[in-house]
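Question: Now follow the chain.
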Amino acid sequence: MSKRRVVITGMGALTPLGLTARESWQAVKDGVCGIAPITQFDASAQKVKLAAEVKGFVPENYLGKPEAKRMGRFTQMAVVAAREAVADAAFTLEEAEADRCGVIVSSGIGGLSITEAEHDRGKERGWDRVSPFYIPTGICNMAAGMVAIDTGFRGMCSCPVTACAGGTNAVGDAFHYIRDGYAEVMLCGGTESSLTPLAVGGFTSMKALCQNEDPARASIPFDAERSGFVMGEGAGILLLEELEHARARGAKIYAEVVGYGATCDAYHMTAPRPDGSGGAKAMVMALADGCVTAEEVGYINAHGTSTPLNDAGETAAVKAVFGEHAYRLAISSTKSMTGHMLGAAGAVEAIFTALSLRDGYLPATIHYQVPDPACDLDVVPGQGRSADIRYALSNSLGFGGHNGTLLLKKWEEAPSCS
């Protein structure tokens, strides 16, 4: 029996590079750095001074003041990105059954800023005086729930909470859900907005964040001088659609999702396995899922966080999977531009990977300067370049040992396998 094919027909994003998917992708092609001094709180007393914030986002301009007030920032961004994805796909519910349209949107932390504010309020006024909106605006799954309410999608609605792998898990789970016949349309992706004193302090104390105050030397994946990641925020939402459903309504197609792999290191709370074997298995699973050989892959959008352990381990994983072909493909990290958007990262990077296939363009790892023998692959240093690629992977690795890989294919009529 042939597997149902799944294509990307709509995209929406708010990132440190732009307030739409199109703006963000153009900034990636231009090599723009979205990292700058923190403005959302006074960071003068903290060791980390930089972040990758979404700039110029005024929720009331998109949602209206009453609606915006009843959503956390992470939910606001998810709803806005989902609206963009639906509009971009020119999709309306009149073209589908609402019960066959679902939502899977990840968030790793949810409304942490709301928890911090309400904790202060409770200590000052009494715990029974916290906002009645605290719980429904702060919980991680509310972004998925509000996207479903906003769109009227009544199928499966879920929220993977798998740290930095969450956005990839959301897209992969949605892909399988459509491919296996449970839905025709899925809005999927991730959202995160946790740039708060507590979150930055927590990541700093565990020595995960870069403390360099120069934006050009902060998020530097695969560089020998890398010293930690830069926290980012944002949202990325994709509209996935069963191919015949998309064809029937004349939808444009960005790319095809053909494979997905998910594994767990089962090793350490925060550190990946040094040999990268968990991530390697996720890539192998994605390739097998899509009936694609390693030699057919031309590009990998790496997890590439700019931490010493991640980048070396991910490089080792790529070598284990691809052998000598690892030195012929490109592997770059767009986190050099966006910082690390945590639960939104995999979704935004899936969008960038799909657009890489469509445009035949490899994003750069900007600000790369000092080679590391442990990261000796083609990281597309400094400046992006044109390349005709047919298949690409997008990797995500999360605290807790979560590994996820998506395999995307440049859009063409012929299937990768049946």
Summary: The first strand starts at residue 6 and ends at 14. The chain has two domains: 7-248, 259-410.
